Amino acid sequence: MEKSDIVRFLEAIDAELTPYAAEGERLDMYLLGRSALIVRYGLQLATKDVGIVTHGETSGLQPKALELFGKGQPAAQRLGLYLEAVANGIPPVPGRYRGQAVDVPGNWKVLRPKHLEPHDLAITKLKRFHAGDREDLRILCDSGDLNIDGLHAALDSAFPHGMDEDNEPDCKPVKRHFQRLIDYLEGKSGDV
User: FRET pair for 93, CA 20 to 30 Å: which of 58, 79, 115, 136?
Assistant: First the structure.
């Protein structure tokens, strides 16, 4: 998948949503996952979906976009990609993500696709941490866009009440994966 494929997909969503938007209504769409890396860095990587952060307080445009471009929908099949909704607590996404995100350049009508800040994007990869996530983390580290202080700040934002392993079972593996990421970034390990 190339950047142009994903941008074309986002442009199709923008065009389809325009008739449904009220005057001045916009849909902020925060990109997650591998598609976010492809768009941000212009990489060629395999992906079937464009992951987006979903949250409660959004316009009616988000459900419409998912209805039109979600998995199995004709528009998604035609374009070879589908829109995947990811609840902001699932990866987890740092709480600061909206204020840190930057717009994806383009002539958007109602859609406002946004890049997560690289540290925030990295933190979303730590819970699942499968082979593709580790490859994505290597890409982020090797881009030079990550630093240890930024990763700690993003992790603190993702777990604002601390990482209590007794009350939050996902904390233990996230801590372990975070340390692997730090070790790779510091050159102490050849792999994430």
Answer: 79
Instruction: Please give the backbone phi and psi of residue 70, each rounded to the nearest 5 degrees, phi first.
Output: -70, 175
Residue 35 C-beta-side C-alpha neighbours within 13 Å: 27
What percentage of the chain has pLDDT greater than the value 70? 97
Spatial CB neighbours of 42, under 8 Å, sequence gap ≥ 6? 3
50 three-class SS:
strand
pTM of the model: 0.93
Cα–Cα distance measured from residue 30 to residue 146, given in angstroms and rounded to the nearest whole number:
19
* 21's tokens: 């938007």
Cβ-contact 112, 27 below 8 angstroms: yes
Give the residue among 144, 113, 141 at the shortest CA–CA distance from 29.
Answer: 113
| Whole-angstrom distance, CA of residue 8 vs CA of residue 80 | 11
Angle at 43 between CA 132 and CA 106, to 5 degrees: 120
Distance from C-alpha of 38 to C-alpha of 35, rounded to nearest angstrom: 5
In whole angstroms, give the CA distance from residue 138 to residue 21. Answer: 39
